[in-house]
Structures are given as structure tokens and as C-alpha cells.
Amino acid sequence: MYDIIIVGGGVAGLYLASLLKNKDVLLIEEHKNLGPGRCSGIVSNRIKKFFDLPNTIIERKIEKAVICCGNSSAEIKLNSFVLNKEKFEHLLLRNALKNVDIEFERINKIEKDYSGVTVFTKNKNYKTKYIVGCDGPNSIVRRSFLDAEPKKFYFGKFCYSIEKPSDSYQIFLDSKYSDLFSWIAPRRGKVEYGLICEKRINKYYEKFLHDKEPRYISDEGFGVIPTGLCSCSFSRGILIGNSAGMTKPLTGGGIIYSLITAKIGAKEFKKEKPDFQNYEKECRKAFGKEIKYQLWFRKIYSKLNDRWKQRLVKLIAKNDLKIDMDFPITDILRDKKLKVFKSLFK
Ligand SMILES: Cc1cc2nc3c(=O)[nH]c(=O)nc-3n(C[C@H](O)[C@H](O)[C@H](O)COP(=O)(O)OP(=O)(O)OC[C@H]3O[C@@H](n4cnc5c(N)ncnc54)[C@H](O)[C@@H]3O)c2cc1C
């Protein structure tokens, strides 16, 4: 019997595994090729609190973003990095392998009994005291233990084009390209064209690529991003990352929240008797309010037409804004920056 089984070897599962020392842990991941094709890997400099990443993993630093809608544009300062997600996950895998066993199999069924939990793959089954669901949008752990779902599911699609990257990250708010936003992001030796939306992903994607004309498409990626934190604890374990909608409702970014949560989870598992309700409380304390505020803003944003979005862009242009990428709304509400946004409605 294992102490803990982690289901899913994305950022959340691999990072948690690297933190669980002196425990009998098994991580089960269905794909052998971790990483590529699922995520753009843009993170704030908060990543440095977790890792000292080598330049092979950091593709480039991004210091500014240009937000555009129609003919209006505004520049905001950023302090962020573009990670090579494939290499990043391989680093996490190497760290995880120091502590845990890994099996590359798909879990098809999970059963709970008085002594613990049994997970079933095609040919084997494994017993464990506790289970952690790091298994993404369609989490089998979530569906087996909780009657809860993240509030929203976004779709993200992007491609790489072999062309010379510029210095800035361009973000487009135009409704013809997405009901959320689209982007052109510089990477190392290539440029990423992508968008995230709630509906009609292929229609938006075709229109965006048609208008922006990437030179030579080398690769494409697609993924689902759940957002809007749902319940993430149950008697036998917890959920971490995408499985519980631990992403930002305004951007879909979830790497930093997953790392924060994995740390909270690992701390709980260090206790002789982990308290999973306390884990959930700590997660909500860390970013629950921010997610709630962003869901409200998302609701307001979804009602804005392009004229209002242009007003918003012009307002940003008039003010020298530097916003915390991971906690933007908390940052705005805490600061004098709120005045800037209030003036939009005058
Ligand atoms: C298109 C796109 C772009 C993104 N861009 C960014 C970005 O720029 N910045 C950012 O911070 N975040 C971004 N994100 C979000 C970010 O990737 C995730 O929030 C973060 O990586 C945490 O993911 P996770 O580990 O929780 O889940 P996932 O990455 O979804 O991993 C879940 C893992 O579980 C495995 N799994 C699922 N079911 C089973 C099963 N039954 N048995 C065994 N294994 C299973 C899957 O194979 C997968 O490897 C993006 C997401 C998408 C889709």
C-alpha cells in the first residue's frame, strides 16, 4: 500500500512529487511525452521564488506587453518569462524521480473502501492511503470523490511560426478574434500566435491567423483550461491545479497557482494526520479572493463591446501601469490604481 498516489504528471503533479520526501509515493501519468502542445508557458517573475531556472528553460524575458483593440493600443510593463514548457516539465520530472516511483498508465477507475483507495489501470491496480488529483480538466479523481466542477472551461489554441520575434508581447482584445483575448508572443527564434476563448475556438482561430498571417507554422497546440476554483478536498485526499480550476479567470494562466498549491499540499502531507479541509482553507486564503474578483471582472468584460474595450485601452495608455500578473485585481484594489479604473465610468 502506498502512502500517496498522485494522478497526473503535469506541472502540479510533478512539482508536488518533488516536495514529498520520506513517503512511499507513486505518480501515475498517462502520457510518456510530457510537456509539449498544451501550454504557452508565460509566467511572472514569481517563478523565481520556486526555482533557479537555467537559460535553456527560460526562452526569454518579457518586459512589456502592448494591449490593442482596433486602432487603440497601450503599453504595460511586465516582469515575466516565457518558459520552454517541455524542458520545464522534464526538469520537474527529474526532481520528482528523486522521491517517487512513476508509472506511465491511464487510470480508468477509482474505488474507496474502509482502508484506503484503489486505482485501476488497464492491467493493474494500486492501493493507497491518500490520493491527489493533478489530472487536469477532466479529472477522474474529482469525478470520483466530489460533486463539484470548476465554474468555467476555456479553450486555448496556438501555433508557432518560424520568424524573427519582436521584443514585446502583443495582446488583442478585438471581439472578432476571441470572446476573451488573443496574442502574438515572442519566443526563442520563433513567434507564438494564440488565443483563449469560451466558445467557437476554430472560427476565432481561423480569423486570427488569416488576419495576422504567421509566416511559417511549425507546430500547433490545443488545451482546455478549467477556471473558477471548486471544492478541492475530500476525506481521502485533495485536488491540485487544473483539476480544481486553480487558474486565473482573466487569462487562464495556472502555473504559479499550481506551484503555490503544491507547496500547501506538501506541507499538509508532512503532518502525521493531514487535514485536507485545512488544505482547502489555505488555498482559498492564497488566491480564492483573486479568482472570485476575476470571475466578476470576466462577467463585466464579456458585456463590453469593442468601443468600450477601446476606451479601456486608451485609459491604460494614459496611465503608467505595472500590475502584478498573478494577482491583478487584488493589486488594483489595494493600490491607487483603482482610481484609474473608476475614471472609466465617469
Ligand atoms: C493552451 C494553453 C495555454 C496555457 N498558457 C499558460 C501560460 O502561458 N501561463 C500559465 O501560467 N498557464 C498557462 N496554461 C495553464 C497551465 O498550463 C496549467 O494551469 C498548469 O500547467 C497546471 O496544470 P496541471 O498540472 O494542473 O494540469 P495538466 O497540465 O492538465 O496536467 C494533467 C495531467 O494529468 C494527466 N492525466 C489526466 N487524466 C489522467 C488519467 N486518467 N490517468 C493518468 N494521467 C492522467 C494528463 O495526461 C496530464 O499530463 C495554459 C493552458 C493551456 C491549455
Give a nutshell description of this structure.
This protein is α/β, with parallel strands linked by helices.
What does this structure look like?
The protein is α/β, with parallel strands linked by helices and 346 residues long. It has a single domain (2-298), classed as FAD/NAD(P)-binding domain. It is built from nine helices and 16 strands. It has helices spanning 11-19, 85-97, 140-145, 201-212, 255-270, 276-303, 306-318, 328-334, 337-342; strands spanning 2-7, 25-29, 42-44, 58-69, 72-83, 101-104, 109-113, 116-120, 125-133, 152-161, 169-172, 181-186, 191-197, 217-227, 233-234, 237-239. A hairpin with an 8-residue loop joins strand 11 and strand 12 (181-186). Helix 5 (255-270) runs antiparallel to helix 6 (276-303). The chain is globular and about 65 Å long. The protein binds flavin-adenine dinucleotide.
Order of helices and strands: EHEEEEHEEEEHEEEEHEEEHHHHH
Query: Helical residue percent?
Result: 25-40%
User: Any ligands, ions or cofactors bound here, and which?
Assistant: flavin-adenine dinucleotide
Q: What structural class is derived from the secondary structure elements?
A: alpha/beta
**Shape assignment:** globular
N-C termini distance: 63 Å
Helix count?
A: 9
What is the average of the pLDDT values? 93
Keywords:
8-stranded mixed beta sheet; binds flavin-adenine dinucleotide; 16 strands; alpha/beta; 346 residues; FAD/NAD(P)-binding domain; single chain
Task: Spell out the blueprint of helices and strands.
Blueprint (H helix, E strand, L loop, with lengths): L1 E6 L3 H9 L5 E5 L12 E3 L13 E12 L2 E12 L1 H13 L3 E4 L4 E5 L2 E5 L4 E9 L6 H6 L6 E10 L7 E4 L8 E6 L4 E7 L3 H12 L4 E11 L5 E2 L2 E3 L15 H16 L5 H28 L2 H13 L9 H7 L2 H6 L4
Parallel strand pairs: 1-2, 1-9, 2-6, 4-11, 9-16
Antiparallel strand pairs: 3-5, 4-5, 7-8, 8-9, 10-13, 10-14, 11-12, 12-13, 15-16
The structure holds flavin-adenine dinucleotide (FAD).
The site of flavin-adenine dinucleotide has 36 residues, from helix 1, strand 2, strand 3, strand 10 and strand 14.
